[in-house]
Structure formats: structure tokens, C-alpha cells
Amino acid sequence: MYEEERLIEIQGMSKSFGETEVLHNIDLYIRKREFVTLLGPSGCGKTTMLRLIGGFEMPTEGKILFGGRDITQVPPYRRKVNTVFQKYALFTHLNVFDNIAFGLKLRKVSKSEIEKRVMRMLRLVKMEGYEKRSVESLSGGQQQRIAIARALVNEPEVLLLDEPLGALDLKLRQEMQLELKSMQQELGITFLYVTHDQEEALTMSDTIVVMNGGRIQQIGDPKRIYDEPKNAFVADFIGQSNLLSGVMLEDELVMMAGKEFPCVDEGFEKNELVDVVVRPEDIMVVGADVGMLVGTVESVLFKGVHYEMIVSTGENRWKVHSTTMQPAGTRVGLSIVPFNIHIMRRESSGGVQEVEPQ
């Protein structure tokens, strides 16, 4: 991506509340028409970053640029962004049409233009025919759609979404993930989305920003984040992983679980201490006589599309996902191809901000 496509740039931004620092020296840019997700556990600083971009908080240090212009001190109503919160804050005394039209009326947009824009939004969120309904008569999912329509009708360049699907049940949440992505692509505007749900992030995002302890841990597209985590935190937080300590004996050869394994990673020092991640779906269950590791199936759970088995090889317990099941107590072999062994450099407990180029 070229620099001129950058819409928002965050430069050296930190934020403290009293003596508590919640964001530390954040550098990040967000491109035009991009769906970016801030992903991390509760308390990692992702909502604070969203509020800083929206203008609801001021940074302790650093600045925020929008289209190359410094907006750090610009109030929220003068920023070309709108926000959808987890609590939709709809006006219960207004019907659906008037809720969506509220911001346009404040700006004294003509009645005909309001009518055109509101009806377009109702079509976009699949709520045609609901314009005269009371918002209190709507389901949670329908209220969420109206909140999104109310934000989008003002034609912001950026839509900020703070865990907007958190109150919905699983099936509706999964449906809305796909609809949100479809809306973003149709409108061609930038979405900045906050969640702690890894599935949401992987499903919708063009770019994921993984955060922990007020710092960025990794930036990348969903496949890169999942397949090539930068550190043990990212590997453990995104999906399920087998995390082991290892020693990089030389390029393309690692020692873990007491055995040597060929891998594809290079550029490490000889005998460098490393962390190793192997995803459960990347372990093959084979005969005990041919496995790279041999162990006993401790437990089996049926997960719908696969079985989850815990296999003990003595000092290590491996989580294995497979479409075929081996009963508990069975002796099995485990095999891992070199490409599916991912090596990560050890990091200090302080969580160094190490990110890849965007």
C-alpha cells in the first residue's frame, strides 16, 4: 500500500489515567477503505485507542493525523468519524426513521435528502418497512442495525465500532459479522472495529492489530497473524496452540519435546532459546510405530467438524484436532511436517512492541 492511501496516522501516542499508563508509545496507520480490527483481552487499551481516535479522550503524548492533518485537539463533532457502541443508545421516544434521521436534522439537511438517505440506509441494513416502528419493539439484532444505519447515514469517512456485537447471541453475531463486512465493502469507507473475539477479527478484518498491556504485539492480515504469530502471546491468544520451549540448533532444525524436528525457519543463532508453536490441526495422528512422537490419548471431545484429542507423550500434552477419532487409552504416533512448526524468538515479560511492516 502506498503512503498516500493512509487515512489515519497515530504517532508516538501514549495515554495515562493518573499514574496508570494504558497505552504506551503507539505508532499505527490505517488506510482508506480498510477494515481494521483492534484485538486483545480486556484492559489491553483497545477501547481507549478507539476513543482517542474519536476525540472522546485526549492523548497524554503523541498526535493523531487524519488525511495528513493534525486532529489531536479537534473535538469529536468536527471529526469525520462516527461511533457505534456496544450499548446502542437509541432514542426510545423516536421511531426507527427519526432515530436514523436525527443527525441529519441537526445539520438542517433538506427533507427530501433526509428521506433519500434514510431509506437507502434501511435497505443497506435490511430493515425496509420498519421506518415507523418503535425502537423498543425491535430485537437486539434489529436495534444494532438501526444504530449502524444512524452512524452511516451521516456519511463518515471512518466508522468506529466498539464491540457492537457483544450483546447478541452466537448465531446472530456470526450473521452480523458477514453483513458488517458486506456493508463496509459496499460503502467503501474505513471501519475500525474493537473486539476481544478472535473469530470476529479473523472473519471480518483486512488488518488485525493485536494488543496486550497497552502495546501493539503484531499487525498483519488474518492469515499472517494466525499462521505466523510474532510471539507467544499472539500464538496463544489467536486460535488454539501447542506452545513449547525449544532450542534452535541451527537453521531449519529445532529441538523440542526432547527430539529434533526439521522446520523451515532461518536466521536464528545456533542453540538460541526459542518458543515453538504448533497448531492442533497441523498435527497428524499416525501409527505408534511411525510417529515422530509416541503418546497415549487421554481424552476425546467431539467439536462438530473435528475431534479434539489430548495426547500425552510423557512430559508434554498435545492438543490435536482431527476428523478421525482415536479412543482414550489408545497408543498413537504424532507427526508434524516442517512447514507447520513455527519458531518465535523469546521476548521479555515486558512485551516489546514488535510489529511487521504493514
From TrEMBL:
It catalyses: ATP + H2O + polyamine-[polyamine-binding protein]Side 1 = ADP + phosphate + polyamineSide 2 + [polyamine-binding protein]Side 1. GO terms for cellular component: ATP-binding cassette (ABC) transporter complex. It comes from the Bacteria. It holds the Pfam family TOBE_2. Its EC number is 7.6.2.11. GO terms for molecular function: ABC-type putrescine transporter activity; ATP binding; ATP hydrolysis activity. PROSITE patterns: ABC_TRANSPORTER_1, ABC_TRANSPORTER_2. CDD domains: ABC_PotA_N. InterPro entries: AAA+_ATPase, ABC_SmlMolc_Importer, ABC_transporter-like_ATP-bd, ABC_transporter-like_CS, Mo/tungstate-bd_C_term_dom, P-loop_NTPase, PotA-like, PotA_ATP-bd. Keywords: ATP-binding, Cell membrane, Membrane, Nucleotide-binding, Translocase, Transport. It is an enzyme of class 7 (translocase). Residues 8-238 form the ABC transporter domain. The complex is composed of two ATP-binding proteins (PotA), two transmembrane proteins (PotB and PotC) and a solute-binding protein (PotD). Part of the ABC transporter complex PotABCD involved in spermidine/putrescine import. Responsible for energy coupling to the transport system. Belongs to the ABC transporter superfamily. Spermidine/putrescine importer (TC 3.A.1.11.1) family. This is Spermidine/putrescine import ATP-binding protein PotA. It comes from Candidatus Pullichristensenella excrementigallinarum. The lineage of its organism: Bacteria, Bacillati, Bacillota, Clostridia, Candidatus Pullichristensenella.
